[in-house]
Amino acid sequence: MKEPQLQVNDLSKAYRLGNTHIPVLERLSLRVDPGEMVVIMGPSGSGKTTLLNCISGIDTPDSGDVSLDGRTIDYTSEQERTQLRRRHIGMVFQFFNLIPTLTVEENVALPLLIARNRDARRVERVRWLLTEVGLERRLTHFPFQLSGGEMQLVSIARAMVHYPDLLLADEPTGNVNPQVGRSIMRILRETAKHEGTGVLMVTHSPEHGAWADRVCFLKEGVITAELKQNGNMEDPTPIHRKLLELGI
Ligand SMILES: Nc1ncnc2c1ncn2[C@@H]1O[C@H](COP(=O)(O)OP(=O)(O)O)[C@@H](O)[C@H]1O
Ligand SMILES: [Mg+2]
Asked: Domain 6-245, CATH 3.40.50.300 — does that match?
């Protein structure tokens, strides 16, 4: 059996607002294998973003544990949480989060600079990724000169630049047009397949969910159902049909 890339066990998280206690995740368990693409779907407020933020260490779980490549993350260590994002996890957000004063090429290279990666091939890696996402002619542009879809493609290249073990993507297709949405799904799938990266992605779109190996439904902090892809990945129609039947 393959070691899971990501294993989440009994993860719980609640927020406290004054005296009110708002449970968000309730003993949630989930695994993502190397090269596997798992999609999370669920209504607004069901805890999707909280789950990704707990995994990446942006937020800390109240209980339960998370391991990456068989190693349990120590969330009490600030340093470990930072290293986790610098070395092991790539993140894509709904609103891109690019640095406006840096060019496309500099934005993508930033994680390597922060991690003090002096690999001579790093310029090559940045340019290769930007070619993969179709932006090889935009290296010296600034974010304001790009469309929303192009900004998201830059942020995907940035999330991949340090060969993360795990890519977390929170509604990456939420603010792009359908054509770019499909390109994003293709790039995420190919990355999972060719680089062995585990991909955990949130979406509201059944069409995009249909690209996954597995779709998990989150409701009120627990996974209530799961759909597995058992057909031909080149033809995601059966899972799409099922998602539509379920009224997702
Ligand atoms: N920092 C926070 N403080 C208090 N409540 C929060 C905080 N972040 C999220 N929540 C609450 O947790 C619930 C789940 O939020 P979230 O994970 O963002 O849901 P989703 O991404 O599925 O829409 C919501 O009810 C939200 O209001
Ligand atoms: Mg969210």
From this structure: yes
